[in-house]
Design goal:
The structure is a single chain. With 155 residues, the chain is α+β, with helices and mostly antiparallel strands. The protein folds into 2 domains: 35 residues, no CATH class; 109 residues, Alpha-Beta Plaits. Helix content is 35%, strand content 32%. It is built from 3 helices and 6 strands, in the order αβββαββαβ. The protein has a 4-stranded antiparallel beta sheet with strand order 4-5-1-6, with helices on one face. Strands 2-3 form a two-stranded antiparallel ribbon. A hairpin with a 3-residue loop joins strand 2 and strand 3. The termini are far apart.
């Protein structure tokens, strides 16, 4: 596509083209919004969050079952009383500890919490608070968080 070469013509043509593209995008978005957003009856767009909690504590050993249950009861459940799923996992990650000469792969048992919830500021703040609390309480470098929007129904 070539643009006009007359002085003063380029900006109005670009503005008109941009306006046309934005209008077309808005119409497409409206059409999609009018369709059912989820494929199955009763489903609704929902935020699904998975949080991965390493169970090894440096220079101490593993998070005990009691410590985990206390963390779940005191920190997670009050923020998500409608429900969540917890399962055991085993994972690995590349430890880039600057105190060592070489990177190495660390393998450890983990707990995963999966939460299906509304996508709100309060929920996002709760997720970050849970992560911060766990990292501090159990001396962790990080808590992995995976989030996405999914179609969910509780039938």
């Amino acid at each position: 596509m070539s643009l006009p070469t007359k002085p003063g013509m380029r900006l109005p043509v670009l503005s008109t083209m941009l306006l046309a593209m934005l209008s077309a995008a808005a119409i497409c978005t409206e059409a999609v919004a009018d369709e059912a957003p989820c494929p199955l009856p009763g489903q609704a767009p929902t935020l699904v969050v998975q949080m991965f909690f390493g169970q090894s504590i440096k220079n101490r050993g593993l998070v005990t079952r009691r410590e985990w249950n206390d963390f779940l009861r005191q920190t997670v459940t009050p923020r998500f009383p409608d429900g969540l799923t917890v399962y055991d996992a085993y994972g690995q990650w590349l430890d880039r500890d600057t105190n060592r000469n070489a990177h190495h792969v660390t393998r450890e048992n983990s707990k995963v919490i999966m939460i299906a919830t509304q996508n709100t500021d309060a929920v996002r703040e709760s997720i970050m608070a849970i992560s911060d609390t766990y990292r501090k309480r159990f001396h962790q470098q990080s808590v992995a968080i995976v989030s996405n929007m999914a179609c969910v129904a509780f039938t």
